[in-house]
Amino acid sequence: MGIYPKDKTMMAVYSHPDDAEVWSGGSIAKWNSMGGISHVVCFSNGDSIRENEAKNSASILGYNLHLISRICLVTEENIKEISEIINNLTPDILITHYYSDTHPAHRSTFEIVNSAVIKPWIKNRKPEIFLCSNTYNSLGMSEVFEPTVIVDISEFIKVKEEAISQHRSQHVEILKNMSLTQAKSLADRYNKAKYVEGFIQVPINGKLANTSLF
């Protein structure tokens, strides 16, 4: 049985201001369209250009943006701040980068979130589901990304592309093409819809949820 988004909260934590759009933009847009509430936390290193781009993108996808003006290093300060945000927002769904991501900053962010989620979960039993998003070419450090949760984003692929387009300081066309190709390839691979985003459920304190995403 899936979690229906109505009045539920999704929270995503990413390394860079464009990651939410690239790796889970369609799912965020779909979640919001079904009455859900979404929050994206990202590290920005204080780059005002990228922060403004993130704000523009947030307005398109409809999420609440939380910027952390530091690098995503695995530090007690970062773990504590993310833990406090999780505790305050009590998300039903928590998303971050793939634990075996080839990008070192992405792996660091996973480690931060994986450490930060334990205390809020013990206190609130939230989030119910902890997910990792996809990575470049669906290839991890030593394994192929094999999603356990698939979200049909066919109706939201255009808004996902529009949101990515706001990050003009980056290689926008490369990001859009990669994201589109990956969503189509993953759909073909699992024979699901036209475009999909895939996620892997991660245990929290040694436990996996019996429910899935909408």
Quick rundown:
The protein has seven helices and seven strands; from the N terminus they run βαβαβαβααββααβ. With 214 residues, the protein is of the alpha/beta class.
Question: How would you characterize the overall build of this protein?
Answer:
- It is a single chain.
- This protein has 214 residues and is α/β, with parallel strands linked by helices.
- The chain has a single domain (9-201), classed as Rossmann fold (3-Layer(aba) Sandwich), CATH 3.40.50.
- Helices cover 43% and strands 17% of the residues.
- The chain is built from seven helices and seven strands, in the order E-H-E-H-E-H-E-H-H-E-E-H-H-E.
- It has helices at residues 19-33, 48-61, 76-89, 104-116, 118-124, 157-165, 172-190, and strands at residues 9-14, 37-43, 64-68, 93-96, 129-133, 149-152, 196-201.
- A seven-stranded mixed sheet has the order 3-2-1-4-5-7-6, sandwiched between helices.
- Helix 3 (76-89) packs across helix 4, helix 3 (76-89) packs parallel to helix 5 and helix 6 runs antiparallel to helix 7 (172-190).
- The longest helix has 19 residues, at 172-190.
- The chain is globular and about 40 Å long.
- The relative contact order is 0.20.
- The model has no long low-confidence stretch (mean pLDDT 95).
